[in-house]
């Protein structure tokens, strides 16, 4: 499903901390290996991995930007640039669930 940036911010209670372009509808992807140019990377945490470790890979694949949680915010400068969009959320897992609930309500 595609979202407007306003819908993403509304659904996740996120905050845009960097925006270099105006976007139409964009997709969300949690797999840096499968990300497309019109998608935002949403790094999730697993038992044995931290999706934030794959932000650089997602950006090199050409995605338009990424989500980052407050715990990783101080490391944002370590991620590959340029990017067009960064969305700060409290927790990326919760943001993922909130986006899912947003879709259900629609």
Question: How are the SSEs ordered, and which strands pair?
Answer:
Blueprint: H1 5-12, E1 15-19, E2 27-29, E3 39-41, H2 55-60, E4 65-69, E5 85-89, H3 92-105
Parallel strand pairs: 2-3, 3-4, 4-5
Antiparallel strand pairs: 1-5
Descriptive report:
The longest helix is centred in the C-terminal third of the chain and has 14 residues, at 92-105. The termini are close together. The mean pLDDT is 90. This protein has three helices and five strands. Helix content is 26%, strand content 20%. The protein has a five-stranded mixed sheet with strand order 1-5-4-3-2. It has a single domain (5-105), classed as Udp-n-acetylmuramoylalanyl-d-glutamate--2,6- Diaminopimelate Ligase, Chain: A, domain 1, CATH 3.40.1390. Helix 2 links the parallel strand 3 and strand 4. The protein has 106 residues and is an alpha/beta fold.
In short:
With 106 residues, this protein is an alpha/beta fold.
What does the radius of gyration come to? 12 Å
Name the helix and strand elements from N-terminus to C-terminus, one letter apiece.
Answer: HEEEHEEH
* Chain-averaged pLDDT: 90
Specify the biggest β-sheet: 5 strands, mixed
Query: How many helical elements?
Result: 3
- CATH-level-2 architecture: 3-Layer(aba) Sandwich
Looking at CATH, the homologous superfamily is MurE/MurF, N-terminal domain
């Amino acid at each position: 499903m595609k979202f407007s940036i306003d819908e993403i911010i509304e659904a996740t209670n996120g905050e845009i901390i960097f925006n270099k372009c105006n976007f139409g509808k964009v997709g969300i992807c949690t797999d840096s290996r499968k990300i497309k140019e019109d998608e935002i990377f949403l790094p999730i945490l697993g038992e044995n991995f931290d999706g934030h470790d794959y932000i650089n890979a997602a950006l090199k694949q050409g995605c338009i930007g990424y989500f980052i949680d407050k715990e990783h915010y101080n490391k944002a400068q370590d991620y590959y640039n340029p990017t067009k969009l960064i969305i700060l959320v409290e927790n990326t897992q919760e943001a993922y669930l909130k986006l899912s609930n947003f879709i259900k309500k629609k």
